Amino acid sequence: MSNLLTTSDEILASARTLIMSGGYNGFSYADIAEVVGIRKASIHHHFPSKAELVRELVKRYRKDGEAGVAGLEQNVPDPHDILKVYAGHWAKCIEDASRPFCVCALLASELPSLPTEVATEVRAFFRFISSWLTSVMARGAKEKTLNLSSEPAVEAEAFLATVYGAMLSARAYGNPEVFAAILAPALNRLSPVTSH
Fold it and tell me: Which of 28, 37, 136, 162 is deepest in the core (most CB within 10 A)?
């Protein structure tokens, strides 16, 4: 049974890598079979369709994100520090190329052409991140550890857009340092103590 789980995980990891390099329509089961070293029929055994495979991938990605956020919330009490750690996480992933781009952000750019079940999971991921960031912003405003110029939900969406926009810019320029350079002013603006 653990062998099935391992194969399933390898298939999902391969799909994630292929999506990050070419998007949803940029890979096939033949590509996964070649990477994982199994037959296409074996992939169909685990995931009867490409839509089911990517839906499961996004679902697991969200669950991993939920676990990561829970750990972050438990270990970092200050809302401004939470935002810095979150941005730092992505800066490191981009720099070491372990996750140079959020798979859900990439899939969101393809939303109009995605199968419904995949689009639903991608939207659920964004609702989760947005809701979490809104709670961080609200807590920071209440504790006066974040300087908000708009409602927490608007600030959360602006921060999220900045993170994903910075990812896109770093990718477009082929320069991981672009990410941190873009995030620095956003984090400074939210800081309760502005440096002059």
Answer: 136
